[in-house]
Design brief:
The complex is a heterodimer of chains A (262) and B (159).
Chain A (H helix, E strand, L loop, with lengths): L23 E12 L2 H9 L7 H14 L1 H4 L10 E9 L4 E12 L4 H19 L7 E11 L6 E2 H4 L14 E6 L1 H7 L3 E5 H6 L6 H11 L4 H4 L5 E4 L2 E3 L10 E5 L6
Parallel strand pairs in A: 6-10
Antiparallel strand pairs in A: 1-3, 1-4, 2-3, 4-5, 6-7, 8-9, 8-10
Chain B lengths: L1 E6 L5 H9 L7 E8 L9 E8 L3 H16 L2 E9 L1 E3 L4 E9 L2 H18 L2 E7 L2 E4 L4 H8 L5 H5 L2
């Protein structure tokens, strides 16, 4: 069985002696996410936040934090990091911000603690910047995604577990995010899917709600019964739309049954 | 001018009225609608219901309904609170408050807001009864109630 490396034969915590370990190139990547209200995300993206550029501040905070890791984690070696990068990506599906931190060095011990610290502190900084408008934000997904170099060799989360790491949603491509609510979501057993507009265009579907619906029915036959239902409502970017409404890259399109609030 | 809230926790209608009228001497009328969870609907013996909504869109939809009401009637303020999550019979579910100088505008606008909330705001109810759970279907009568406002009836009654 694998043992805890930071605990000796007597059960005491100690710092591992790495003097004899060869120097190799090490990389580690870690993630975090901050789930928030859609309005909070919109506010961050619009740059209208009272505390200034939220994403840039969180990125710098993450980089600074990586350099302070041995001060925080008792048995962690001080390292000469050769690279720290922190990326923050908005994800409308979350809704919130996804964070990925990468740390590199040529050394005798791994850098996953630095990557985890960078991702965590970037998430905490996002919370600090936005807490005045949203106190319900949830910090999560803090984990190592990948390690390279060293005695134990290369490791990736996806190869080691059933857990599928959700990659950054690409915002560059022409995609629409399709969401389903209430009865639709339950019947389909899914609440979202991503559709490439390039594919719609290639096959001569119109770039409208009607075209998107036709494409969905053709390519996801399980959707045909719910999408043909009487009274089905549709919204583009939170505004009620109809069959003729145009869709474009980055749009969020929601299909839902007639509403029953009040 | 309108305060909008979509929330899980209960509200106190009396406190909300006080918030609407605090430090104002121009308000002559407040009309309110308070909706409660019934223990019978499509089936008898409703034990509870779960309200789902579309975060982000719901608030915008309520805001635009309130804005439409503000354009149609001379209103001084308003509050719309709608609860989501699990609710039981007797629980307050929705509150619409509208203030104006004279009663007719407040009555009409409150009625208008409820009609459009029922047909435009993305909320969905799932009822839990002794004989099973089901999603509540939309009522034709709600559609009809909302459509009468487009006929210009409101303009005729607003003083």
């Amino acid at each position: 069985m694998t043992k805890f490396t930071h605990i000796d034969q007597n059960g005491q915590a100690h710092m591992v002696d790495v003097s004899e370990k060869p120097i190799t190139a090490r990389t580690a990547r870690a993630s975090a996410s901050v789930t928030m209200k859609p309005e909070t995300l919109s506010m961050i993206l619009a740059g209208g936040h009272a505390k200034g550029d939220v994403l840039a501040t969180a990125r710098i905070a993450g980089i600074q934090a990586a350099k302070r890791t041995p001060d925080l984690i008792p048995l962690c070696h001080p390292l000469m990091l050769s690279k720290v990068s922190v990326e923050l990506q908005p994800d409308h599906q979350l809704p919130g911000i996804r964070i990925e931190a990468t740390c590199k060095l040529a050394g005798q011990t791994g850098v996953e603690m630095e990557a985890l610290t960078a991702a965590s502190v970037a998430a905490l900084t996002l919370y600090d910047m936005c807490k005045a408008v949203d106190k319900t934000m949830l910090i999560g997904d803090i984990r190592v995604l990948e390690k390279q170099g060293g005695k134990s060799g290369d490791w990736t989360l996806s190869a080691d577990s059933e857990i599928e790491h959700k990659p950054f949603v690409s915002r560059s491509g022409a995609q629409v995010y399709v969401r389903f609510f209430a009865e639709l979501r339950e019947e389909l057993k899914q609440d979202e899917l991503v559709v490439s507009l390039d594919e719609l265009q290639e096959h001569n579907y119109s770039l409208t709600i009607a075209g998107l619906k036709d494409w969905l029915i053709k390519h996801h036959t399980e959707l045909s019964s719910v999408l043909n239902r009487a009274g089905l409502m549709v919204a583009i970017n939170h505004q009620v739309a109809d069959a003729g409404s145009p869709v474009s890259g980055g749009d969020e399109v929601a299909f839902f049954p007639p509403v029953t609030g009040g | 001018m309108f305060h909008i809230s979509v929330q899980q926790h209960p509200f106190d209608a009396g406190k909300e009225i006080n918030l609407l009228t605090a430090q104002r001497t121009d308000v002559g009328a407040v009309a309110s609608f308070l909706g409660l969870v019934r223990d019978f609907n499509e089936r008898p013996d409703v034990l509870a219901l779960t309200l789902e909504h579309y975060p982000g869109m719901t608030e915008k939809a309520l805001q635009s309904i309130a804005q439409e009401a503000t354009q149609r009637w001379p209103l001084l303020g308003g509050r719309i609170i709608h609860r989501v999550g699990r609710l039981e019979p007797g629980d307050p579910i929705v509150l619409v408050l509208v203030s104006s100088a004279h009663r007719q505008a407040a009555f009409d606008a409150c009625n208008f807001i409820m009609d459009f909330l029922k047909t435009q705001a993305p909320f969905w109810k799932k009822e839990h009864t002794r004989s099973g759970d089901y999603w509540v279907s939309a009522r034709n009568s709600d559609e009809k109630a909302a459509s009468r406002w487009q006929l210009g009836r409101s303009e005729a009654t607003h003083d």
